[in-house]
Write a structure and sequence with these properties.
The protein is of the alpha/beta class. The chain has 2 domains: about 230 residues, von Willebrand factor, type A domain (Rossmann fold); about 45 residues, no CATH class. The chain is about 40% helix and about 25% strand. It is built from 10 helices and 11 strands. The strands form 3 sheets. The protein has a 6-stranded mixed beta sheet, sandwiched between helices. The protein has a 3-stranded antiparallel beta sheet with strand order 1-3-2. Strands 9-10 form a two-stranded antiparallel ribbon. Strand 7, helix 7 and strand 8 form a beta-alpha-beta unit. Helix 1 packs across helix 4, helix 1 runs parallel beside helix 10 and helix 6 runs parallel beside helix 7. It is elongated and about 90 Å long.
Length: about 290
């Protein structure tokens, strides 16, 4: 994975496209009503002892002889958490490199929009996260952090997302980038994000060789996350059954997300990362 000048140019292009695609609807929805130096007048309420006198509406007092306080809408910072699967299964077919590249692209767009972006790796041993930052200048911290991820250990999606929601005070977008190859399942983890008022987006990274392995005969297979060995006889019939099961698994994940309003994107590593990111934008995912 190379984060060079040509890569940065692609990221800037994606940012420019994102500005054209989005009209600010999301930001308009993410406003909180506060009294103070807000950016837009919203409403009045009755004055109570202790309120800041600077926000009294004297024109209303002059007309109605009532002390009313002006309320303003003040835009909140949007927090974006990009959760990257760094378990051992992501090591196969260079899925981790694809995930790192997509994560960097999404982070760049968020940073450029002055949102607060954090990278949260999961899988394997306990890992540190990259704290929230804003501004395009912080993209080099993102590059360095992502480049240092070493895929190892089990996915443990449910445990990872449970730890995330309980250690993260500020709610926001939670983009989960993973192959979702976790025998313990994904349902509980994604439901935890929704229950704790995060807004999840799912990016399922896969390689065609995951779905259509080129194997034949009597072989010994190894689980890359547990080290478990198993001797199997691979036939054309078995391969066909495997392909059907793999497709059914992916379709089940897509259906689970659709039923809960979770944006879902299936990310084939053969597709250039910028094409995937543009598809996410145009479908209304991530920053719509």
């Amino acid at each position: 994975m190379e984060f060079d000048e040509s890569f940065l140019k692609k990221l800037e292009y994606l940012y420019v496209v994102s500005r054209k695609v989005f009209t600010g609807a999301m930001r308009a929805e993410r406003r909180t009503r506060k009294i103070g130096s807000g950016v837009e007048f919203a409403d009045h309420r009755n004055y109570t002892v202790g309120d800041d006198l600077r926000y009294l509406d004297w024109s209303v007092y002059g007309r109605l002889d009532k002390l009313l306080l002006r309320l303003f809408e003040e835009e909140e910072d949007l927090h974006i958490y990009i959760l990257v699967d760094a378990s051992a299964s992501m090591r196969t077919h260079a899925k981790i490199e694809y995930a790192q590249t997509v994560a960097a692209a999404l982070a760049y767009v968020g940073l450029a929009k002055l949102d607060r972006v954090s990278i949260v790796p999961f899988g394997g041993p306990e890992r540190d996260r990259l704290p929230p930052s804003r501004g395009k200048g912080n993209i080099f911290k993102v590059f360095k952090f992502l480049g240092g991820l070493v895929p190892e250990g089990k996915t443990g999606l449910t445990h990872a997302l449970e730890a995330f929601v309980h250690s993260t005070k500020r709610r926001g977008l939670a983009v989960v980038i993973s192959d979702f190859y976790d025998p313990e399942g994904y349902q509980e983890g994604l439901n935890l994000l929704r229950y704790h008022r995060f807004e999840p987006t799912v990016l399922q990274v896969y390689d065609t060789r995951d779905a259509r392995p080129v194997l034949k005969g009597d072989i010994e297979i190894v689980d890359v996350e547990t080290g478990e060995l198993r001797e199997v006889t691979v036939t054309e019939r078995a391969l066909a059954a495997f392909r059907r099961e793999h497709e059914a698994y992916c379709e089940a994940l897509a259906s689970f997300c659709a039923a809960r309003g979770i944006p879902y994107f299936r990310a084939d590593t053969a597709v250039p990362f910028d094409e995937l990111v543009l598809r996410i934008f145009r479908a209304g995912g991530f920053l719509s």
